[in-house]
Design brief:
It is built from 3 helices and 8 strands, in the order H-E-H-E-E-E-E-E-E-H-E. It is globular and about 40 Å long. By secondary structure, it is α+β, with helices and mostly antiparallel strands. It starts with a helix and ends with a strand. The strands form 2 sheets. Strands 4, 5, 6, 7 and 8 form a 5-stranded antiparallel β-sheet that branches. It has a 3-stranded antiparallel β-sheet with strand order 1-3-2. The relative contact order is 0.18.
Length: about 130
Amino acid sequence: MSDPIADMLTRIRNAVAMKKEFVEFPSSKMKSSVLSVMKKEGYILNFTSTTNEKKSSTKVDLKYDSARNSALKGLARVSTPGLRSYSRKDEIPMYMGGLAISVISTSKGVMTGKEAYKSNLGGEIICYIW
């Protein structure tokens, strides 16, 4: 697999489309950082990482309202292994007119675009979530 972050986002997108309660995939530190931003922003309920016999996996509990509409409407991968996308502090994009959040990997860790702007940091734009 050449892009594990894109794989994670696709698995979440497919699980939301099928109205699944949870989704599982192999875990990593970067995936956990992106998921912590998603949890903090209210797009998922919770995530847990487990290790079994040299294999680690992450289980994500998806968030729905009473009418079974997902809190997560869309995910878009921006920076790929073949074409990295970086942004300065002043150039952090506002996707969908500010309705979506941008997840950015900075020198201080993974955070939203607004947090990076307030912290005067730029970095690699990982994905957009709305």
